[in-house]
What does this fold into?
Amino acid sequence: MNPNPARLLACGLALAASAAFAQVPAMTKDGSVGYFCGGASADDRRQMKSLESNANAKLVFATVKRGGYLADVGLSISDGKGTQFSTTTEGPVCLLQLPPGKYRVTAQRGTTTRTASLSVGQGSGKPSTLDIRFPEEDLDRISASPEEKQQAADAEGKPVRR
It folds into this structure.
């Protein structure tokens, strides 16, 4: 049975189109706020670029010294009337569609809380960016268990110091 070249081409185009549409992220609406938090991988950050023109605010979460990206940050955004939006981030970058105005951004990771002011306009195609940094200490307190240390030593062929 010989495959039909036109049918193969049509199937290939349909698959390519569905893959392209599946990779475009969409903002979630929460009241008057649209948001998308992600960017844990380089591919994810590339995909988020398509949403930046729809956002009027961009928040980036990282560590102070190393600049390592952080996820699982508790985020709350409020205006003079109260909280507009709150979530726990799924990645180090949050793109937001906020009504024009002035906001207080509160971000919490572990025992560290950061607050900052954010002003957004109608949206000029480039979002206002707020870079929120957390100390390394929260991450430095994480240590390997004795079992993990033993596994690492076994892999390297070295004895474990106790």
